Amino acid sequence: MPMANENSFPCASSPAPHHFEHISFAVCPRDAVTxxxxxxxxxxxxxxxxxxxxxxxxxxxxxxxxxxxxxGIRDTEFWPFTCSCGxxxxxxxxEPIAMxxxxxxxxxxxxxxxxxxxSADMVEGLTGxxxxxxxxxxxxxxxxxxxxxxxxxxxxxxxxxxxxxxxxYAHNLVDxxxxxxxxAAERFAQRDREAQERLELFGDLLPLEVHVTFSNRARFSxxxxxxxxxxxxxHDVERPQSELDEVLQETVAVFKRDRGAIIAAARSLPxxxxxxxxxxxxxxxxxxxxxxxxxxxxxxPLWPEAVLEIVGPxxxxx
Length: 318
Hints:
This protein is an alpha+beta fold and 318 residues long. It has two domains: 3-197, no CATH class; 207-317. Helix content is 31%, strand content 24%. Helix 1 packs across helix 3 and helix 5 packs across helix 6 (259-268).
């Protein structure tokens, strides 16, 4: 993790119960033009803790105001910090921030990686792991002030206002500020519903992975969840979705009862069927720098002799 300097925020892992951070937002507008020549206002939003910026204007890590406003105040996981392209992993933000709320308090739980750019020194940011505690009324007020500032900017400039990361084209600016926030809220609510459905279906299978070691020392892994989807749907893609859902439920039930069935299901598939959901494991592999990301056809002949193992908490706590 990048080292913090005097501009970063070292954060106590367990703040005093009555200690609250004061959050606010600065909006920095500038004139801009999309890739296809449409004028708009780029409104960079800087989050402030006690008046000090968490990330500054020149930091590769940017604050995604649309995400924060869209999530509102509720128990969730989200990425308020991301890359200018919109992909958090580009700037080392691999873990979401968990937000927990009650009637009086909003808390952000920041992972060990903290909030920082991939640089030798953290120019601005937040060291982790830690908790940030906000008074709910103050947090609500800060979000409302941010929303009203963006709405006023839109009204004053009479141009589309962009307050979200990503390379922009004219079609990205169709929504007004209010519509953008509403769409973000709908998208995140749908994501949370789908996450709950996944949890109800897969349960303790969700954290499990199958690790694959080939005879050439290449090591890959894939999630048991992805394996279940592939295995359940591999026979007949023409079948109705209701039938595929039923097969998936049956497959998951078998996986939960017998972890040996997980390995057997993986073995029954050609490696080419799994290739799109595998990723290279580099940790713990000698000279992994020399390993190329091999094409499926190169690994297919090695698949029958590959060593498979399940990694993670075992189903049903066993």
